[in-house]
Amino acid sequence: MTKAFLLWWIQVVTVSFSAILIYTYGWFEELWNADQTKISFIIIVIFIATSVATGFLSFRSDTQYKKLSNYIWFASETMVTLGLIGTVAGFLLMLSSAFDNLDVSNVENVQKVISNMALGMSTALCTTLSGLVGSVLTKIQMVILENNTKYE
Question: How is the chain split into domains, by residue range?
């Protein structure tokens, strides 16, 4: 076992423990309800896949797998991009139907408009947060890997 693999394993255990806590407190369900586009879950799947690939690279630490590390770096940037796409989609959801049938004299109508705007804003913020967290955690794994592996 290499040092890179052991450091990768520490992060996997930490992230797994955090995921268990998040699941226990019902935050995954909240995320599911808040993100209308479900892009956050695509980001989570990409993060899991890149973590497994990074673990594979850490365990093998051969120079022939250098090409795979380029794909992991690309996936890290893709997570940020998907987060930004979700942000734009959330703002579009927020603004697209917010003011179509606005009747300020009707309190129920105004409450419905505000509720729809909040749903779009929650989509925007959830996807941004998911993309940034997934990307940062992947980059940490890759920096650890590249600093502890000798590619020739």
Answer: 3-147
